[in-house]
Specification:
There is one protein chain. The protein is mainly alpha-helical and 303 residues long. It has a single domain, classed as ABC transporter involved in vitamin B12 uptake, BtuC (Orthogonal Bundle). Helices cover 72% and strands 2% of the residues. The protein has a two-stranded antiparallel sheet with strand order 1-2. Helix 2 (36-54) crosses helix 8 (201-226), helix 6 (179-189) crosses helix 8 (201-226) and helix 10 (253-274) packs across helix 11 (279-293). The longest helix is centred in the first third of the chain and has 30 residues, at 69-98. The termini are far apart.
Length: 303
């Protein structure tokens, strides 16, 4: 029983990290970007490409982890390149269509962008699964097997949980205490009033794309680090990302993370009971049940 719980926390942290980008985009740009899942995939694969460059330095892994500083450096490069991809897509597509003021046009355009990005990635990298490291990690026994089936996690999984917590706390402090973070919150609340008080809304929009895409890249790398890289990675996580963002409440960073943990735990804990084929249905049943009680989500504010 404990092992599915741990697996759910790891999956939930990845979903929650990706869902933060979804909730930021929706609250500030006012449309659901269905291309966001592809940012996870592109971020993971761009990081994989960057590791080929940094691996030439032949650095040793960090202790029991399967990677060393080259992967962390590649992650920074992959996050930056994913942010540039998001900015380029906004310049070429979303900003132009957004001038007409029809959000449904942006939603449909994001569907088309997602399909284009996914097929372009298939063309560039192929459909064979990839790995950041071929080294086999030995799982650490946190809880003895005699206790509720035991609990074993790998050092990489512990790293993913820890760094997710650091990223969410850092983003929370950024939004609460920095000038740009306060400008983002003001724009999300009322973009017209934000312009009247002198906030550069266009700059806020650009930074929203950068932060959301960078977090998506980190989530994609974490998913590839704990399982494997595949071209459908972002597509497989897209609905859980939106479920987590809606469940936590649109506009809430902590709510997106909590929503991701709930979705991840629901999917993982349902596997031993009903099988892996129906685990996504369980997560959405929980989403529907919570929204029936609190339509704005767990931390959402009434419009």
């Amino acid at each position: 029983m404990l092992q599915p719980l741990a697996d759910g926390l790891i999956l939930g942290s990845i979903i929650g990290l990706g869902a933060i980008g979804v909730t930021l985009t929706y609250s500030i740009l006012r449309f659901a970007n269905f291309a966001h899942g592809e940012y996870l995939t592109w971020g993971a694969y761009l990081t994989l490409t960057a590791t080929g460059f940094f691996a030439a330095f032949q650095a040793a892994p960090f202790g029991p982890l399967s990677f060393g500083w080259p992967l962390l450096a590649a992650l920074v490069a992959g996050g930056a390149l994913t942010a540039l991809l998001a900015l380029a897509l906004d310049w070429a597509l979303f900003a132009r269509l957004g001038r007409h003021g029809a959000s449904i046009v942006l939603v449909i355009a994001s569907f088309g962008a997602a399909l284009a990005l996914r097929n372009l990635l298939f063309f560039a990298y192929g459909g064979v699964p990839e790995y950041y490291s071929r080294e086999i990690q030995i799982a650490i026994a946190i809880v003895p097997r005699a206790t509720l089936g035991g609990l074993r996690v790998t050092p990489d999984q512990i790293f993913v949980l820890a760094l997710t917590g650091v990223a969410v706390v850092a983003l929370h402090l950024f939004l609460k205490r920095t000038t740009l973070g306060k400008a983002m919150r003001a724009t999300a609340h009322n973009p017209q009033l934000a312009r009247l008080v002198g906030i550069d809304v266009a700059a806020v929009v650009r930074w929203t794309w950068v932060i959301g895409a960078a977090l998506a890249a980190i989530a994609g790398v974490f998913s590839g680090l704990t399982t494997q890289l595949r071209p459908t990675l972002g597509f497989d996580l897209l609905l859980p990302l939106f479920a987590a963002a809606i469940l936590g409440g649109i506009g809430s960073v902590s709510g997106a993370l909590l929503g991701g943990l709930i979705v991840g735990l629901a999917e993982s804990l349902s596997v031993p009971l009903i099988g892996a084929e129906y685990r996504a249905a369980v997560a959405f049943l929980i989403l529907i049940a919570i929204l029936l009680v609190k339509p704005t989500g767990l931390f959402g504010e009434k419009p």
